[in-house]
Specification:
2 domains; 11 helices; globular; binds manganese (II) ion
């Protein structure tokens, strides 16, 4: 595996053609927005570029990929993945493509190198920041659709610029997005200022059912699938729900467990500076960032919650 600088990635993109961009499973705003922005930047350079259709993309972010996707990889495609920390983060349908990915653009501190080339910058709050830097090597201008996509990437991974990963470069990218026509107000309203009734009901359930540990400085909440079904929440309603328990005053670290349709437990850990969430996630084969990390656990929900609580107490 060879590590590339932003300049070298720009040169690689200029020298090649026929790109296919992959996003991660349970796509969030960063992987959806970064893949859309990269695809648009490449097309603006006269390249042929597509995003591989992500079967798990939900309504919240699917508009970003409109007109940019194709259903499968073709002979000769140059595969690039964005915001993908390990082969396990690829949608299951595409795990066989992992070994053919040429370039990985990512910002996860805890990650597994699996591509021929990579640019991984853990200091970037979002992969969108890296895409922006690369775009500056290729295209000083930006159209409004690219600006929207980059704004979604950067704003969602920083909780609308509130998380500890936010720095001057994050704002610089946001400022550029605004300058080039990103619908900042509309996107903020849509992504951060509105809640569905289902999401609020789920938050109420979490408040009633979370378990406080370490004298109330930590919380663990385990959400049975049946509860999600009874409340009637969608995946969009649950987007980044794991950041919610951490917003309760006094809570410094929170773990949220969700039971998937296949029985697999999805763990998400959120912490304030001074803690390392990856330490809990890595215990279960996952990873991520210091402030936000996750893993998939193959245990019954109650047992998984117990194991997670033990790991949290060791933080
Ligand atoms: Mn990200």
């Amino acid at each position: 595996m060879t590590k590339l600088t932003r300049n070298e990635v720009a040169a690689f993109l200029q020298e090649n053609d026929h790109f296919l961009i992959l996003s991660h499973r349970r796509p969030d705003g960063d992987t959806a927005g970064s893949s859309a922005a990269l695809c648009r930047i490449l097309r603006n350079q006269g390249k042929t570029a597509h995003i591989l259709e992500n079967p798990e993309l939900t309504e919240r972010f699917s508009w970003l990929h409109e007109g940019l996707t194709k259903p499968e990889a073709e002979e000769g495609d140059i595969l690039i993945c964005v915001d993908v920390a390990s082969p396990g983060m690829l949608p299951k349908a595409y795990s066989h493509l992992a070994q053919n990915i040429r370039l990985r653009l990512d910002h996860h501190a805890s990650a597994t190198s699996f591509t021929e080339l990579e640019l991984v910058d853990p200091h970037a709050a979002a992969t969108g920041e890296i895409i922006y830097d690369i775009s500056q090597e290729l295209w000083q201008d930006m159209d409004s659709a690219t600006a929207d996509a980059l704004y979604v990437a950067v704003s969602t991974d920083t909780g609308c610029f509130r998380y500890s990963n936010t720095d001057h470069h994050t704002f610089l990218v946001a400022a550029a997005c605004s300058k080039f026509g990103a619908r900042v107000y509309e996107l903020n309203q849509q992504l951060f200022e509105t809640n569905t009734l289902g999401r609020l009901k789920m938050q109420a359930w979490i408040v009633e059912n979370l378990r406080l540990i370490r004298e109330g400085r930590m919380a663990v909440v385990a959400i049975p699938r049946q509860v999600e079904q009874d409340i009637g929440v969608t995946d969009d309603d649950m987007d980044n729900i794991s950041s919610f328990p951490r917003t309760i005053a006094g809570i410094e670290a929170a773990a949220t467990l969700r039971e998937g349709a296949d029985g697999e437990i999805k763990l998400s850990v959120r912490t304030i500076p001074g803690y390392d969430a990856t330490k809990v996630a890595e215990r279960f084969g996952g990873g991520g960032h210091k402030a936000a990390a996750g893993a998939n656990i193959r245990l019954p929900l109650a047992q998984a919650a117990e194991e997670v609580e033990k790991a949290m107490l060791e933080l």
